[in-house]
Amino acid sequence: MGTTSKVISCFLRFGELVSASIVLGILGRFTYLVHVGNGNTDSRIIYTMSIAGISILFSMILFPPFMYSFWAFPFDFAMFIMWMVAFGLLEHVAGGTCNAFWSWNYWGFFWGRFWRVAGPVTFGTVGRAGCSSWRSMVAFTFIGGMGWLASSLLGMYKVATRKDEMEERAARANVEAARQKGPINGVDDGVKNGNAPMTQVPGTTTTATATAP
């Protein structure tokens, strides 16, 4: 599974990178709008952006499928936990729907730039502004976390089976060395030295004959 595990590892790292980039891009846009609207960025948003930034950095560092990337499975599992914490916080604050008070009064308000609207802003005014972006961000938060979990499990498997792979590789190397150490150019050592092999016929006695120099 050497080549297969490396291909799977690259695929997972790429997925982690893409998911974190999407989450950070959406939240970066939102924090910009909050800043323009003179609002305060929610601590949950800041936490998720921090996790996304860390994920982008380390997904690139661990992208090459070398053995050190598999040994990083404890870090992968820690990243999975942090992503799941972010997912839980975001789902809880929004209530799993775009109709929750926080969703329209905070996310939808700033995403739709409703601070420019004169008069009171209600749910009827904001509606479901920014709902698709919010759902996409939360979905990729979950997908990214699952990617880190899969990388952790793959790393644990790779480390656990590393000894078996090394023994199998050593056995193949020994077989190849023994094959290359066999008869030279297809000629047996005895024939090469001028001593023809003696064949004994059943029922007869073999007598060694000395050859005069």
Structural class: mainly alpha
The topology string of helices and strands comes to: HHHHHHHHH
Give the averaged pLDDT, no decimals.
81
| Percent of residues in beta strands | under 5%
Helix percentage range: 55-70%
In total, the number of strands is 0
Q: Which geometry do the CA atoms define?
A: rod-shaped
Rg calculated over all Cα atoms: 34 Å
Distance between the termini: 61 Å
Biggest sheet layout: none
Q: Count helical runs.
A: 9
Low-pLDDT residue spans = 186-192, 206-213
Can you characterise this structure?
By secondary structure, the protein is an all-alpha fold. Helix 4 runs antiparallel to helix 7 (131-160). Residues 186-192 and 206-213 have low confidence and may be disordered. The protein has helices at 2-36, 43-61, 67-71, 73-94, 101-111, 123-126, 131-160, 162-180, 189-192.
